[in-house]
Amino acid sequence: MPYDIDSLRSLFPALQAGTVHFDGPGGTQTPRPVIDAIGDALAQPLSNRGQYSLGERNAEDIVAGARRAMADLLGADPAGIVFGRSATQLTYDLAHTLAASWGPGDEVVVTRLDHDANIRPWVQAAERVGATVRWAAFDPATGELTADDIRAVVSDRTRLVAVTAASNLIGTRPPVAEICRVAHDAGALAHVDTVHYAAHTLVDLPALGADFVVCSPYKFLGTHHGVLAARPALLETLRPDKLLPSSDAVPERFELGTLPYELLAGTRAAVDVLAGLDTSATGTRRERLAASFAALEGHEATLRAQLEKGLAALPGVTVHSRAADRTPTLLLTFAQHDTADAYRFLAARDIHAPSSHFYALEASRHLGLGDAGGLRIGLAPYNDAEDVDRLLAGLAEFLQG
């Protein structure tokens, strides 16, 4: 599985500034092909979508190309790809639409492990219609969320189960396919947040068994917008609020206003960059993505082992990322030091590893870290062994202070 880290890093102009980036879970740096695709989209004639003028056809081609690219990335049907301003906005819109059929006695399941974007929209939608919210907790000692944890709070009144495919705070990857089966056995829908997961593992919508997944391309080298994927037949059954003149076709009925064509062009380019991470990969784009994500997981596993070995040698460091199956994302706290101080100390040395709850507020509180959270180290495709050495050296210097 060839993984040419030096060639990959050369694609990122931002890395020339010398900063080491461990903030991938909050958003990755942008490769040159994505930057060029955005510029090219804006440089050519561009109009509202249509079939007659060159600008109309260009816009249509960009949207269709982005749908195909995201369908390849998510293992979905292009006709089931919905674009929105963010994954948060798409989840709020979907919650509003689904809740129109909920009422008192109905139940919604959310988890303590999730980012608030896959909690609050469902909680607020349920509250508005008098439905009940039931909470599934993870084990703070291990970071594990199991299907039994979900099964314990599901009933025949459950209408939806919302769960993350990977925690953006501690990296835990729950057994999503099994959790989706629990939801479906109860007659409920399953909504899966793959925002953090999709940056590290190739999403397979049918294999996950999810009814809906959401993700954010800017977490995996792309641009700032959100994507929702579902079966087109399921989307056909939903009636979202929309403008009267706007298209009632699926997936367009879920997309409010004019799409950001230049951002969609950038996202298509990002998927193509991901498909080339394994420089020997051949076949369809989906096949190249599968090989490339396997190579990426191997690369990140090597760096994670280097990082964890180095952290184990430092005094007073607690690593809260402990699940058996997890992404290369580590949450740290220190016995004698504030993580916010570590964040600032490292930033002054051009090492970016931020400290926060990162909107996984329920998870941070459940871990006993309150609203402060911890220092998060998140690997991205362009990180290398030298980056990890710089981080470990910086932490060692900070802890000696």
Tell me what you see in this structure.
This protein is of the alpha/beta class and 401 residues long. 40% of the residues lie in helices and 14% in strands. It has helices at 5-9, 32-43, 54-74, 87-99, 120-129, 147-151, 176-185, 205-208, 232-236, 261-275, 285-312, 339-347, 361-366, 385-400, and strands at residues 20-21, 81-84, 107-111, 132-136, 158-164, 189-193, 212-215, 226-230, 317-319, 329-334, 351-352, 355-356, 374-378. The strands form 3 sheets. A 7-stranded mixed beta sheet has the order 2-8-7-6-5-3-4, with helices on both faces. It has a 4-stranded antiparallel beta sheet with strand order 9-10-13-12. A two-stranded parallel ribbon has the order 1-11. Strand 6, helix 8 (205-208) and strand 7 (212-215) form a beta-alpha-beta unit. Helix 11 (285-312) packs parallel to helix 14 (385-400). The two termini are 42 Å apart.
Low-confidence stretches: none
Give the N-terminus to C-terminus distance in angstroms: 42 Å
Structural class: alpha/beta
Can you count the beta strands? 13
Nutshell version of this structure?
The protein has 401 residues and is of the alpha/beta class.
What brief labels describe this structure?
14 helices; 7-stranded mixed β-sheet; single chain; 4-stranded antiparallel β-sheet; alpha/beta; 13 strands; globular
Blueprint (SSEs and pairs):
Elements: H1 5-9, E1 20-21, H2 32-43, H3 54-74, E2 81-84, H4 87-99, E3 107-111, H5 120-129, E4 132-136, H6 147-151, E5 158-164, H7 176-185, E6 189-193, H8 205-208, E7 212-215, E8 226-230, H9 232-236, H10 261-275, H11 285-312, E9 317-319, E10 329-334, H12 339-347, E11 351-352, E12 355-356, H13 361-366, E13 374-378, H14 385-400
Parallel strand pairs: 1-11, 3-4, 3-5, 5-6, 6-7
Antiparallel strand pairs: 2-8, 7-8, 9-10, 10-13, 12-13
Helix pairs in contact: 2-10, 3-10, 4-5, 10-11, 11-14
